[in-house]
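Async update (no meeting this week)

Hi team, since we skipped the sync, here's where things stand on the single-chain job. The sequence we agreed to prioritize is pasted below, unchanged from the tracker. I ran it this morning and attached the output directly underneath so nobody has to dig for it. Comments welcome in thread, and please keep replies under the output.
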Amino acid sequence: MNKQDLFIRFLLGGTAVTLSYLITVISPWKILAGIFAAFPAVMLTAVIMVGIAAGTRKATNIARGSVYGMMGGIVCVATVLLVLEATNNWGVGIAAGILAWLGSSIAISNLREKAFSKKFIHSLNPLILWHKK
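Output:
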C-alpha cells in the first residue's frame, strides 16, 4: 500500500467519522449518536479503495467479507452494552466487545463456509452417484 492510498483512506474514513460526530452533536435526537456511531465508514472506504485499485471483483470480495464483520458488530455492541451495565467500566466493555466481535465474526464466517461446502457437496451427490453407475 502506498502513501497516497493511506492518505485517501485517512481522508475518507476521517471525514465519515467526523460527519457522524457532528450529526450527533447538532441533532436534537440523542439516539442518533448511537446510530451514527455504527456508520460503516471503514467498510465503504475499503470497498472504494479496492475498487479503484483492483476492480469490482475484489471490491465485491471486501463487501462480502464485511457482512461477517458487520454481523460480528451486532455481537460487539450487545457485549459492550452488557459489560458496561454490569461493570460500569468502559475500558473493560470495549475490550470485551472487540474480543466478542473478532470471535463471532470468525465463527460466523466459518459456519457460513461449512454450510456452503456441505450444501455444495450435497448438491453434487446425485452427479457423483450417477457417474458411479
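Quick observations from my side:
The chain has five helices and no strands.
Helices lie at 3-26, 31-37, 41-54, 56-87, 90-132.
Reply here if anything looks off.
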